[in-house]
Specification:
The complex is a heterodimer of chains A (255) and B (769).
Chain A lengths: L13 H13 L4 E11 L5 E13 L5 E10 L7 E6 L6 E6 L4 E7 L13 H5 L6 E11 L2 E10 L9 E7 L5 E7 L5 E13 L2 E11 L5 E11 L10 H5 L3 H4 L1
Antiparallel strand pairs in A: 1-2, 1-13, 2-3, 3-4, 4-5, 5-6, 7-8, 8-9, 9-10, 10-11, 11-12, 12-13
Chain B lengths: L1 H14 L1 H16 L20 H12 L5 E8 L6 H15 L16 E6 L2 E6 L8 H13 L14 E7 L6 H15 L4 E6 L1 H35 L2 H24 L11 H27 L2 H28 L7 H22 L1 H8 L2 H8 L6 H16 L1 H20 L2 E2 L12 H12 L4 E8 L9 H15 L4 E5 L1 H12 L13 H14 L2 H5 L8 E8 L4 H17 L7 E5 L1 H35 L2 H7 L1 H16 L3 E2 L1 H32 L2 H8 L3 H15 L9 H38 L3
Parallel strand pairs in B: 6-11
Antiparallel strand pairs in B: 1-4, 1-5, 2-3, 7-9, 7-10, 8-9
Helix pairs in contact in B: 1-2, 1-10, 1-12, 2-8, 2-12, 4-6, 7-8, 7-9, 7-27, 8-9, 8-11, 8-12, 9-10, 9-11, 9-25, 9-27, 10-11, 10-22, 10-25, 14-26, 14-28, 15-24, 15-28, 18-19, 21-22, 22-23, 22-25, 23-28, 24-25, 24-28, 25-26, 25-28, 27-28
Classes of the chains: A mainly beta (255), B alpha+beta (769).
Chain lengths: 255, 769
């Protein structure tokens, strides 16, 4: 039997799969709160810890605007630092940072969605989602990964300058559209970063990746992220996401 | 005993020439077959033992701070780089460079890849310095101002005067720099316009290019020298066959030595690439003794077999001991702590032994295969080369009659040499291995005029506990140290985590000059660094601060990479530390490529000195033993000693630095000088035993035996002159030293030794058996 790949007709297009995946991964619930521990691990096994509480609230449709609020517990010298992002899919995010030692809030303008989030192997985009329109998506195959059936989607950046990868492959679980694994290939087509979802739990009916990892295969550096507590639909006030609360966040939200 | 064995070998070769030559050819083919396995090592760092402490530390520094060696590219436009057209050219060139394989794209420092952190209307802006090409004049002026006012960018990615832009290209491995350099060149050639020139600098590219050109030189200079030698040999000996035999033997010994080296899995390093050039004169020297005397004796015998046996009879002992002594001298280099020098010494010794073997097998066998008629025609009459004989006779008379004057003259020469040596400056810099006009030298000069410096050294501050570096006390200390070092004109620029903290503090306070300082509060430092880390590439911080903030790395960009300049900056830091005691728990240690170069060059230079002294002692003992006279042994060291002292003395007087290539040349004197001496003493002894008169021995010595040495001096001194045309100074140096050492060594042998013999010959020759 000869099957040419062009002949396979999928029920969904690559872009639809990615849209559903983003919706499940980054837009679940109306809002969300998690206590997160990030372990930044060097090739030699040296560790740095980032501990934080992350709040997220959706505004509008899945794929629309979002606001993020992050409070840092660790490392020790950045305790009380807070970080706020207004995310707009079609344009640059707005970001604010509170520096407690100087009692100062600063807005930050940066077009660096692909740069590191707090020194980890995750980028800002990995935390809050990459715009679907930034890449051309195509389903290249379907395969079983571990126990799960998955779509394998190839994403090629439309603007090569805007990305540090030449393409990425994503294994998207058919059952819940959460990514199981992602592989990033550099300008020479060599694998350099691998994302894996290591634990998925059902939280209030939302399948949630509670343990994940991003590994830079070239440097051997990796970052493990674990959600210690996670909660959806906690009815976050809008004024959580303001400069005033950036300086003095309410205990009930960040604990 | 030795004599009988060698005589047996020679006789066998005379009787079975074809068998002997076939065996040699088969063995040579076997060694030649190893060549495809060649592994080239162009990394001068390998001059150090793998476990040398500075090397271990440099590896640790590179690992702890994620540092790679880099190439620096400069684009210069006289009209200035702040023009839209030029900026887009540079933008395109950088985009191309990022795609080259082996380039660590994330760490490239340039206009479009390096973030500028600045404050604008209360907003902290973190964007590449050039994130879009400005078109209007105001925008261009703003870009210029932005860069000029950020110490992280000024004089780093754009020169102070705005005429040059730089791109720092970290590469995965140092041995890729030549290839990457070529690709960068292609990109720049196609993207840049006519009014722009570009330059490439940086130690890795100098070192790798040197390695590459070194092999080109081996392929060009060595054969050129070979041709020159052939020509001169022909002029001297007047027989084409006699030119091919020594050249063939030289080739064979090179193939044996290099084949064995490669076959045993050693890498061909800068040092071992010089083996052929060292072997060539030594191998030719062996054969020339036989051939020269054969040519001079033949007319009296008129039979090649008989002539050969007669000539060889007088040569068995000196022609065995001379190369043996040289080989032992080279082999004793294996006692040094410099791995490539060990390999060089051992395999050169092997090549010398092989060359000796050829002189007692291939030479007689080849002569036997030649047509007797040819010899009859060429060598039928004496006096084919009267000028050579006349000169020799004059020399012989002079040294005998004016012996006191000769001794005084050489003593003066020796004293001048010693004085010259006392002036010697030990200094080296791999970029100087290229001649002044070489593009790399020019690039080095231009780039160091425009920018903070292309030579990198690291000063690592190590605390005793994690987070030690984040303390305001430690930060302020490093800040002051940097300020102090930057006052040195060699130091162009320094950068460290302190500069990052100061810049963030400054920018957070809306670019208020008062805040261009280290904050007093430790948490503030931590939070500023966290902000920096959260805003760009985390590697940017890792290059300066290790993972647990226990160590900081100060990058010191220097405008020169001479060992002496490095030592001077080190000394400067020591002065600062003496006047300002280090904060408790903080230690400082140097590293970086410029520093490592200084370390290995110093070890190399000193190591070579001791290696030469060791070999010197070995050679002395061997000769004294052979001649059974310590006095003769001592006298036999004259050619080596005086040629080294005067050659190096002249170098010191000329004000030239004593560097790696020159250090290597000293061993050559051992190889050539002892050959002359051993032949002289064996001959003079034979003649003295035969005649019983010192004067008569001297006269006879200057008839035939001295001819070989005289001829060799001319052949080598002139024959190696093609090396002077090489684009690499070590080859030029070797060429010059070959000539200088040869001339001095033969002057001593032909003029001083007879003069001294007249004074003391009765003492050391009396003991003869």
């Amino acid at each position: 039997m000869v099957v040419l790949s062009q002949d396979i007709v999928y029920a969904l297009t690559g872009e639809e799969v990615i849209k559903k995946s983003q919706s499940a991964f980054y837009y679940a619930g109306k809002d969300f709160k998690a206590r997160v521990v990030m372990r930044l691990i060097s090739k030699e096994g040296k560790e740095r810890i980032r501990e934080l509480t992350m709040l997220r609230k959706n505004y509008g449709e899945s794929g629309g605007d979002q606001k993020y609020f992050i409070y840092f517990y660790q490392p020790q010298d950045v305790r009380d630092m807070t970080f706020m992002v207004y995310k707009y899919p079609a344009k640059n995010d707005d970001r604010w940072l509170f520096i407690p030692a100087l009692n100062m809030v600063r807005r930050i303008a940066a077009n660096d969605k692909r740069s590191s989030f707090v020194g980890s192997d995750f980028t800002y985009e990995d935390v809050s989602g990459r715009d679907v329109e930034d890449d051309n998506h195509s389903i290249i195959k379907e395969e079983r990964l571990g126990e799960k059936d998955a779509y394998v989607i190839k994403g090629v950046p439309r603007d090569e300058k805007g990305a540090d990868f030449s393409y990425k492959l994503s294994w998207i679980a058919k059952e819940n559209f959460l990514p199981l694994k992602e592989e990033y290939y550099d300008r020479h087509g060599e694998l350099y970063k691998v994302f894996t979802a290591d634990e998925v739990r059902d939280i209030q009916g939302f399948p949630t990746i509670t343990k994940r990892q991003m590994k830079d295969v070239k440097t051997g550096h990796r970052t493990e992220v674990a959600y210690q507590k996670a909660e959806y639909d906690i009815k976050l006030d809008d004024d959580v996401f303001t400069e005033r609360y950036l300086k003095k966040p309410l205990k009930k939200w960040i604990e | 005993m030795v004599k009988n064995i060698i005589r047996a070998i020679v006789t066998f070769s005379i009787d079975h020439p074809k068998t002997v030559i076939s065996i040699v050819l088969i063995l040579t083919a076997f060694f030649a077959l190893q060549f495809p396995e060649i592994k080239i090592d162009t990394d001068p760092e390998n001059m150090l033992e793998d476990n040398q402490p500075d090397r271990i530390f440099y590896r640790k520094v590179k690992k702890d701070f994620g540092i790679n060696d880099f190439i620096v590219v400069g684009v210069v436009d006289e009209k200035g780089i702040y023009r839209p057209e030029l900026l887009s050219r540079v933008d395109r060139a950088i985009a191309g460079i990022l795609k080259i394989k082996g380039v660590i794209a994330n760490d490239v420092v340039s206009l479009t890849t390096t973030d500028n952190i600045k404050a604008r209307e209360g907003v902290l802006e973190i964007r590449p310095a050039l994130h879009q090409i400005p078109q209007k004049k105001e925008e261009l002026d703003k870009l210029r101002r932005d860069i000029a006012t950020n110490p992280f960018l000024n004089e780093k990615i754009v020169s102070k005067d705005g005429r040059a832009a730089a791109i720092y290209i970290p590469i995965e491995k140092k041995d890729m720099s030549y290839r990457i350099g070529k690709e960068v060149e292609e990109i720049l050639k196609s993207e840049l316009g006519e009014s722009q020139t570009f330059y490439m600098a940086g130690l890795p590219i100098a070192e790798d290019t040197f390695g590459y050109e070194m092999f080109m030189q081996m392929a060009v200079s060595a054969p050129m020298a070979g041709l020159g030698i052939m020509l001169l040999l022909y002029i001297m000996l007047r027989k084409l066959g006699f030119v091919f035999i020594p050249m063939m033997d030289a080739m064979f010994s090179i193939i044996w030595a290099m084949g064995a080296l490669i076959g045993m899995g050693f890498t061909v390093h800068i040092m071992s690439s010089m083996i052929p050039i060292f072997l060539m004169p030594i191998a030719i020297l062996n054969d020339t003794h036989v051939l020269s005397e054969f040519a001079d004796r033949y007319h009296a015998v008129k039979d090649k077999r008989k002539t050969l046996l007669e000539v060889m009879e007088g040569l068995y002992i000196p022609s065995f001991y001379a190369p043996l002594t040289t080989a032992v001298g080279f082999a004793s280099l294996s006692l040094t702590h410099i791995p490539p020098v060990r390999v060089f010494g051992l395999f050169t010794a092997f090549g010398i032994v092989a060359a000796w073997l050829f002189s007692v097998t291939v030479v007689p066998a080849s002569i036997m295969l030649m047509n007797e008629k040819g010899f009859l025609k060429t060598f039928a009459h004496e006096g084919k080369h009267p000028w050579q004989k006349r000169i020799l006779k004059a020399i012989g008379n002079f040294s005998w009659n004016r012996n006191i004057l000769v001794v005084i003259g050489f003593s003066v020469l020796f004293i001048i040499g010693v004085y010259g040596i006392s002036l010697t400056q030990v200094n080296d810099n791999p970029v100087r291995w290229f001649k002044e006009r070489h593009p790399l030298r020019r690039a080095d000069k231009v780039m160091n005029q425009f920018f903070g410096g292309t030579y990198m050294a690291y000063l690592v501050a190590e605390g005793d506990a994690p987070e030690a570096i984040k303390s305001p006390v430690a930060m302020r200390y490093l800040d002051n140290l940097q300020g102090f070092l930057e006052k040195d004109p060699i130091v162009g620029k320094t950068s460290s985590v302190v500069d990052i903290v100061k810049r963030i503090n400054f920018v957070l306070h809306d670019e208020d000059k008062d805040y261009d300082a280290v904050p007093d509060n430790k948490d503030a430092i931590g939070q500023m660094l966290f902000l920096f880390q959260s805003s760009g590439d985390p590697d940017d911080l890792d290059n300066f601060l290790d993972i647990d903030a226990r160590q900081a790395n100060i990058w010191i960009q220097m405008k020169g990479g001479d060992n002496q300049q490095m030592a001077e900056v080190e000394e400067k830091a020591n002065v600062f530390i003496k006047d300002n005691p280090l904060p408790p728990g903080i230690k400082l240690r140097w590293s970086g490529l410029t520093y490592i170069n200084k370390v290995w060059q110093m070890i190399m230079v000193k190591g070579m000195l001791f290696a030469v002294i060791d070999s010197f002692i070995v050679v002395f003992l061997l000769i004294a033993l052979q001649l059974r006279s310590p006095l003769a042994g001592l006298l036999a060291m004259f050619p080596i000693t005086i040629s080294i002292v005067t050659s190096y003395g002249l170098l010191g007087l000329a004000g030239k630095d004593y560097d790696m290539p020159i250090a290597v040349c000293a061993v050559l004197a051992l190889g050539l000088g002892d050959d002359f001496a051993i032949h002289f003493f064996h001959r003079i002894k034979q003649l003295y035993l035969a005649t019983g008169s010192l004067e008569e021995s001297n006269t006879r010595f200057f008839q035939e035996p001295a001819m070989a040495g005289f001829r060799m001096t001319l052949v080598i001194a002139v024959g190696f002159s093609p090396l002077l045309l090489s684009s690499l100074t070590p080859y030029v140096t070797v060429g010059l030293f070959f000539a200088s050492l040869m001339i001095f060594a033969s002057m001593v042998t032909l003029i001083l030794l007879p003069a001294v013999t007249r004074l003391s010959g009765h003492i050391y020759l009396k003991k003869g058996d």
